[in-house]
Design a protein that fits this description.
The protein contains 13 helices and 6 strands. The radius of gyration is 20 Å and the shape is globular. The protein is of the alpha/beta class. It has 2 domains: 2-75, no CATH class; 102-306, Uracil-DNA glycosylase-like domain (Uracil-DNA Glycosylase, subunit E, 3-Layer(aba) Sandwich), CATH 3.40.470. It has helices spanning 2-17, 27-41, 45-51, 102-115, 117-121, 149-154, 161-172, 208-225, 234-242, 250-253, 271-276, 280-297, 303-306, and strands spanning 133-134, 140-144, 181-184, 229-233, 257-260, 263-268. The chain has a 6-stranded mixed beta sheet with strand order 1-3-2-4-6-5, sandwiched between helices. The structure holds uracil (URA). Uracil binds at residues 144-148, 151, 157-158, 160, 162-163, 184.
Length: 312
């Protein structure tokens, strides 16, 4: 049940970051939530201590407020009434790569990540840990959130519907998918509770602890590839790269240049933002961010490319 509550609160937190302030919730669901939260509120102090992390990272109260009782209607608002359920944070791994060529260092990293016990512990039978993919000499590196259903089967990021759209976006920039590097904040698909033996339906965003655990693996990929530019796709990727307290809504940081360890970082929407509502307006928003990347990277920009998705 704790995982379900964590998944719900983290999803609400993500929606809030994306600028969503209300979500529809069925009365029946509200009633269930009320019952669960009521039970949790009645938990003893020692039970609470047991689920609290030993040393939680300093996170602004607005993003990670302490658990608060959820009241009927306010529960559906992504405001302070939404409490992130704390989770026990594992110590993130220290990644030390051997010296050698890029290919040798990347292969060592891949072996490390695929053999990582904590990553493997999050996999369901037959599913794979996922590391980034692409050119180790890439000038552009895209960073997404976490593997989804297709990705955890194939062991490669962005191969499902969002990935196919990302590939089209990259091609529209005049670049081949093989010439960029594509990674994720997470190396495993964050799990949702399912009935015994059932496949997971849908995805949830990673928790802060999960992101913190995987971030050293992403940093190591950035170190090996040493791209000239980074593109964060969506709020989770932006949070992972800029830090949890860096912004409240994605709108504050998207379409602007930031810095990640000395590398210019552009933040844009996740391709699934378009998949959810494929309007020319949404496509144009992302495209304008990618135009900025093309210009700064010195990629040729034709008049035709400049005008993509202008018909609103
Ligand atoms: N969405 C992501 O953020 N990453 C993937 O690898 C696939 C979908």
């Amino acid at each position: 049940m704790r995982e379900s509550l964590t998944a719900i609160t983290e999803e609400l937190r993500r929606l809030k970051l994306a600028g969503v302030t209300t979500v529809p919730v069925a009365d029946e669901t509200l009633e269930r939530l009320r019952r669960v939260v009521g039970r949790r509120a009645a938990a003893t102090a020692s039970e609470r201590a047991a689920i609290a992390p030993a040393a939680a990272p300093a996170t602004p109260a607005a993003v990670n407020p302490p658990p608060a009782p959820v009241r009927p209607r306010e529960a559906v608002r992504t405001t302070a009434a939404v409490a992130a359920v704390p989770e026990p944070l594992r110590k993130p791994p220290e990644v030390r790569l051997p010296s050698g060529t890029k290919a040798e260092r990347w292969a060592a990293l891949k072996a490390l990540v695929e053999g990582d016990e904590n990553c493997r512990a999050h996999l369901r039978p037959g599913k794979r840990v996922v590391l980034g993919v692409g050119s180790l000499d890439a000038a552009l590196m895209f960073v997404g959130e976490a593997p989804g259903a297709e990705e955890e089967i194939q062991g490669e990021p962005f191969v499902g519907p969002a990935g196919q759209l990302l590939t089209r976006m990259i091609v529209a920039m005049g670049v081949a998918r093989e010439d960029v590097y594509i990674g994720n904040i997470m190396n495993w698909r964050p799990g949702l509770p399912t009935a015994e033996g059932q496949e997971q339906v849908g995805n949830r965003p990673p928790t802060a602890g999960e992101m913190a655990y995987c971030l050293p693996f992403l940093r190591a990929q950035v170190e090996v590839v040493a791209p000239r530019f980074l593109v964060a796709l969506g709020a989770t990727a932006a949070q992972g790269l800029l830090g949890a307290g860096a912004f409240k809504t994605l709108g504050e940081v998207r379409g602007r240049w930031h810095d990640f360890g000395g590398i210019p970082l552009m933040v844009t929407y996740h391709p699934s933002y378009i998949l959810r509502e494929p309007t020319p307006r949404r496509k144009r928003l992302i495209w304008e961010d990618l135009l900025q990347v093309m210009e700064r990277a010195g990629l040729p920009v034709s008049d035709r490319q400049r005008g993509f998705f202008l018909e609103r």
